[in-house]
Amino acid sequence: MKSLYKTLLFIAIVFSSIIYAQQTQLEAKVNGACGMCKDRIEKISKKYGASIAEWDAETLILKLEFDQSKTSLDQILKKIAEVGHDNEKYKTTQEVYDKLPACCHYDRTVTFDKKEEKRTSEEMKMDTNSTKKEEHNHSEVIDKAIQEVKLTKVQDATAINGKSADLTYNIGKKELLKAACCNLSESFETNATVDVSFSNAVTGTKQLKMLGLDQKYTALTKELLPEIRGLASAYGLNFIPGRWISGIQLTKGGSTVVNGYESITGQINTEFVKFNKNPENTINLFADFNGRYETNFTSTSKLSEHWSNSILLHGNVTAGEMDSNNDGFLDRPKGNQINAAYLLDFNDLENSGFGSHFGIQYLLDKRIAGQIGFDDKLPQSSQNKYGVNIDINRFQVWNKTGYIFKGKPYQSIGLMNQLTYHKQNSFFGYRNYFGEQKTFYSNLIFESIIGNTNNKYKIGGSLLYDDYNEDYLTLNYKRTEKVPGVFAEYTLTGTKFTLVAGSRLDFHNLAGTQFLPRINFKYDFSPKTIVRISAGKGFRTANIFAESQQFFASNRTLEVTDNQGKIYGLKPEIAWNYGISLQQEFKLFGKKASWVTDFFRTDFQNQVLADLENPQKIVFYNFNGKSYANSLQTQLDFSPAKNLDLRLAYKYYDVKADFQGGRKQVPFMAKNRAFFNAAYSTKKEGKDNFWSFDTTLQFVGKQRIPDTKSNPQNLQLPEFSESYLTLNAQVAYQFNKHIRAYIGGENLTGFQQTNPIIEAQNPFGNYFDGGMVYAPIMPANLYVGLDVNF
């Protein structure tokens, strides 16, 4: 009997071995976009012989197990293509693709290297790990709300996220290289959505405007962490070097509730350079003809199987003394900046499900402005030259840790934490300003599904702690803002629509409890015709000193009208934003083109106005009445020839508020703006050397200037400014994969505002004012640069 058992056992083992030997485990890349794609791909795989089929929407990897005597990888992939999904061996027909539900329309420009067909399963697993590492080292580990960024067309410089319910533009490295892009403020000079302007004629700082409103109403984040806010509002755009940026996500209108309550007109999120499959070291050298010099160094490398890091260094010096209009004042400040960051990433998502990102950054920024001959080594009281001295120290440390549940790629939990210390010591003539800010931010997010991936939800809580200490003249202002909050967001994906609805409840110790609902809806009439609708509420507390430093370079007295609020005597700013957009893709001259038109309206329930209508003072108060901004933009992108991309845009703004003197158009906001960008390259397949040419022409219509009629007649400004054109251009040559040189020019039309400083000859007099700026204050400027990758 024992021998019989042994014989049967031996036969069973042999039979099982034969069966197992016939079971083949392979992986293949298959295009798809949603939960419905997953069901379809797995169902057809099993129908045609797979015993196990698992498709991952994030990596596009299909894992198969099948009996090789009954079917083959080739047969399964062919059948998958027949139902609408491109893969590494077969492509579906356009007719079949078009019949897929709108939510299943993946990006067909994502192609697969044919060499992958010959690779082993283990090699493809290594690529999968690398891909996951790249994605999840970014904010996707913590907040999958921007996962779809990876599906955008990689060859496009700027592309609309077609899967997103909100209107989000993904700006890639190709777009950033079209201009000098020394810092974040210059990253949008080839983008029609954001307006970039100088804020005053003394400190030379630039500000962004979106949807007709100042940058303070846009949430400016770094890797989804709060970045340019509070005391950093005036100069924060200079704190992010352009060469550190790997990509930007720009959302118009109210963004997701997950990222906080301060977004009113939209969100601009910046991603830093990180390790991507291969180590990379880059050096950038830049110089312009007016005495600005800059060096950037970035290095990314893999430390071990699960660890990688990035080293980011930046330094700049502005040494030239330029006074092109002979008013005795520098056209832009002198100074220098030292900026360093270190990023450390951990990824073990494949095994433990954990991923973590750590960052630390330190910055020293010094700028000196004012009259030529001003000595910054002497106190202002010891000399008769008007001077401006601004010293900024900034330190940040942050961490984002996420966990993806085993066997549930749709379910994750993430925690973000950030500490920020910011200090500014400055004086503007006899006017001193000191500011110190200590901030702690924390955000916990849990994401999962209800039944299937067509029903997703996010819940979580956040904490924002701000401690402010400010000295202005002889006054001291201290306050601590504590804001715990909770939020929930639901995403419903249908065959032709996506709905994202969420709300926040924030408990502000000084501004009171705030309830903020937001909704975004996308409907696909066809794969090429998409309509989006959004509505949302946001609030913020005004930092009137930090946000109004452009007016410190004047002799205006500063007044605050007490409105019984707890922050400078002012109440919080509260606003609703509504938007609608139409996205249409079509053929123009036989070539692919896209047209986007959007309209947004912002209605303030409460706003802090900076009233400049009396040239002798600036008055802050909560308005009594109405304040609104209407923004209409239409944009056409098309490629009439190979390697030639054209962009045309027109914007109309209607921005008004009830000032103490009545309803008026908000100053320094042109009603009409037009934009044209052309980009051409000689790049050919298989060639590493090529030329690229980029040019941007902008028209800025007339703007209302604050009332100066009470000034002496020779110091009065017209009611409206003149219209003007600016032209920027750049030519670059790529020698090989490692070396790129470029030369360019800014404001090549040479338009300058006439006498941007009122009474510049008497800066300590009653009428001196350097804040009435509506146009460029510097003449045409040329620059050169060199990029080296090794």
TrEMBL record:
Domain TonB-dependent receptor-like beta-barrel: 360-748
Main location: membrane
Region Disordered, annotated ranges: 116-139
One Pfam short name: TonB_dep_Rec_b-barrel
Biological classification of the source: Bacteria, Pseudomonadati, Bacteroidota, Flavobacteriia, Flavobacteriales
Entry keywords, A to Z: Cell outer membrane, Membrane, Receptor, Signal
Protein name per Swiss-Prot or TrEMBL: TonB-dependent receptor
SUPFAM superfamilies documented for this protein: Porins
Subcellular location: Cell outer membrane
Keyword Signal attached: yes
Extent of the signal sequence: 1-21
